[in-house]
Queue: 4 jobs
Job 1
Amino acid sequence: QVQLVESGGGLVQPGGSLRLSCTASGFTLADYVTGWFRQAPGKEREGVSCISSVDDRTVYTTSVRGRFTISRDNAKNTVYLQMNSLKPEDTGVYYCATARYTWLSLASVDYRNWGQGTQVTVSS
């Protein structure tokens, strides 16, 4: 069964850190461009970051550049999102997904297999 499972979310104070994991089963995650997205209450889903399936090139949305880092561990069939210097506006449900195509994109329409999401709340 093809499945993506996110984990690592939680409640953290502003300025804190979290590491999200996206683990695949039923297929090899390294064969796909993998992206992280988030959705805040009342807002549309937003692309946060993605990583290439070929050379580990990465893309970040402007608001997280320099604070978030996406990476792969192919032996664990997992993609991570390290989130540092978290802000209240980073709050939302975070999803990982695999892309339909081989180019890097932060558009959710370019992704097909989605995990169930993990909640991240940044609050004091």
Job 2
Amino acid sequence: VQVLQSGGGSVQSGESLRLSCIVSGRTSGESSMGWYRQAPGHRCEVVAMLKPDGTAYYTDSVKGRFTISQDDAKTTFYLQMDSLKLDDTATYYCAAPAGPPRCTTGYSSGAWWGQGTQVTVSS
């Protein structure tokens, strides 16, 4: 299984970014995935998760601003981030399947993780 992230960058407060995550090589059945982030000095946290039935979970701080989605093949996942705030600055990771927050790369605790991408929001 390979997980490849793209997107991210530096924006000003109020602007938008979209992160993408391509998951390849996964066997049939498992289709959940999650987005996570870790800011310097902070613990890794779940940002959003997409369950196999298509329902989404969002951490409270991003509700109404972030949207998690997937393509029809369930191999590419997105995190649309609107109305970005300074507190959204962090390294963002995707992982498949969704699970506990680790903010790591490679394979860990039953999940495959992307390489991480930096999102920086400035005023």
Job 3
Amino acid sequence: QVHLVESGGGLVQAGASLELTCELSGRTHSSWGVGWFRQSPGNEREFVAAIRHSGLTTYYATFAKGRFTISRDNAKNTVYLQMGGLTPEDTGVYYCAAQDGDATMKAESYEEWGKGTQVTVSS
């Protein structure tokens, strides 16, 4: 089992940048793929980005391409989500999740989830 903790959320103005961090602990010797998802009030949880354990393969939602960058430092058991050009539509709770052996865009494929970090973008 792996434990995930997100951090880095906050209140920012439109156009700002923000970097979220997901720290993994526990059974970190496994090859965990990590995904970021977000959820805003009244909406379903949606995929944002994912990265395989090697860090060489990444996936992005259409809205994230060109604005967000996912990366990881396996020596630190940490995954990052750098977000730029934020808009009020990016407001929501951002979750990171881990999947043993792969990384996909499907929330149901992920085994472990963090509790989320709130991102609020004001206009």
Job 4
Amino acid sequence: QVQLVESGGGLVQAGGSLRLSCVVSGRTFSSYAMGWFRQAPGKEREFVASIGWTGGMTYYADSVKGRFTISRENAKSTVYLRMNSLHPEDTAVYYCAAERGRIPSVARDIEVWGQGTLVTVSS
């Protein structure tokens, strides 16, 4: 059974940066396309970014394009989300997601979720 464990969340001032990490265990990491989603209080879980099996394809939500960067290190079974120029509206629980058959884009279709890591951006 595959498991996803996120880390790297915390409190940061607006304009600051954070890097989230998600370590995958239990199955071959390279067989999964990976993604990041987030859920703010009272809102639905939304797509943030995703990356293909080899890292050659990346996709971003318009709200984070140019500020966030998703990457993966298959040798470490880890996917990252580098977040720059953070805004208070980026405050949310960030979830790592994995799918074997397609690149993650829709929350309801996700095969495996991590437990989430909280990011709080103060103004």
